[in-house]
Hints:
Layout: H1 2-11, E1 19-23, E2 30-31, H2 33-40, E3 54-57, H3 63-73, H4 77-90, E4 97-98, H5 102-111, E5 115-119, E6 129-131, E7 133-134
Parallel strand pairs: 2-7, 3-4, 3-5
Antiparallel strand pairs: 1-5, 1-6
Amino acid sequence: MIKVLAFLCLLLPGIATAEVIVNSGVTIDSIGRQYLLSVFSMRVRSWPDGQPVRVFVLPEHHDIHRDFVKRELKVFPYQLKTMWDRLVFSGAGQSPVVVESQEEMIERVSVTAGAIGYVVAADQGGTDVKHLEVK
Length: 135
């Protein structure tokens, strides 16, 4: 039964859950769900050690993005976009960096200090990223 579920997770988009990844230079190993929302809504601009946060996301229409926002951040994608737009239009902040694929997400997070993103593909194959446990 477990093998069947694992196989279905690979075949059907939206079933496998995205994992939060950060650049290996980020000093924390876990993050609370509310703090994670604050990071992805661009309200938190630095990690607890003072290092600037750089947020990377997939395009709004991407299945992994929609699933991540709903499951992990507990908001709808349009709500997250509204938060970003308010910051940009008020001059108080900026939008996250949009990448086109999971491969680009892993690459950009691995080479950017303080970076955070998310992927379903758990294999980073020697890149400079680590998983962040969401509590």
